[in-house]
Amino acid sequence: MSRPAPAGGGFRSLTWVADAGGGRPGRPSPPPVIPGDHPAVRGPGRALGPSLDRIGKAAGQRLRPAVSSPCSAGVAAPSVHRVHSVRSVRSVSRAPRARSHTNPGGSPMSQRALVSSLIGVAVVGGATAGGIAMASTGTEPALENGSARYTAPSGDRAGSLTFTVDATDDSGVKDVKVVAWPARSKLDPTEEEMRHVEYATCRSTSDAASRCTYTLKVTRAEAAELTPGTWYVSALMTAEDGDTAFAPHAAGFDVTG
Question: Positions of the region Disordered (predicted)?
Answer without folding.
Answer: 1-50, 78-110
